[in-house]
Amino acid sequence: QVQLVESGGGLVQPGGSLGLSCAASGSIFSINAMGWYRQAPGKQRELVAAITSAGITSAGNITYADSVKGRFTISRDNAKNTLYLHLSSLQPEDTAVYYCTARRWFPHKVYDYWGQGTQVTVSS
Fold first, then answer.
1. Residue 57: predicted pLDDT
2. pLDDT of residue 72
3. How far apart are alpha carbons 116 and 58 in whole angstroms?
4. In a designed cystine with 9, which of 66, 107, 111, 118 is the match (CB 3.0 to 4.6 A)?
5. Short-list 76, 95, 69, CA closest to 35
6. What pLDDT does 56 receive?
7. What is the rounded distance in angstroms from the CA atom of residue 64 to the CA atom of residue 81?
């Protein structure tokens, strides 16, 4: 299995920036995709950004929610087994618990993993 631990959350002012990290451990050698979700108070959990690895049948791909395009950047350091999310131009609406997720898929099964979440609060 895969264990995911997020870090880097905190309190920032509107317009500020923040960097989140997600350290992966365990069966990390065949993770096909990783991403970030967030859940704001009273709201449904939503996909923020995701990154997939290039493979024999597809190229690597990055996707963002429309609400964060141009402001957030997702990246992955394979050598460090770490996923990152850089958040900039933050607004109060970005306040949420941010969750790291990873996916491993095989011909017969797909495995999804979740971190415990890290709180991001944007407030003046």
1. 63
2. 98
3. 30
4. 118
5. 76
6. 58
7. 21
Question: Half-sphere exposure of 86 toward its Cβ, with a 13 Å CA cutoff?
Answer: 6
Radius of gyration of the chain (CA): 14
Which are the contacts of 76, defined by CB distance < 8 A and separation ≥ 6?
34, 51, 82, 83, 84
d(CA 62, CA 9): 22
**93, two tokens:** 């609406």
Residue whose tokens read 């929610």: 65
pLDDT digits (tens, 9 = 90+) for 36-82: 999 999 999 999 999 987 665 666 799 999 999 999 999 998 788 89
CA 30 to the chain's CA centroid: 17
Mention every residue, 6+ apart, whose C-beta is less than 8 A from residue 28. 2, 81
Contacts of 80 (CB under 8 A, 6+ apart): 23
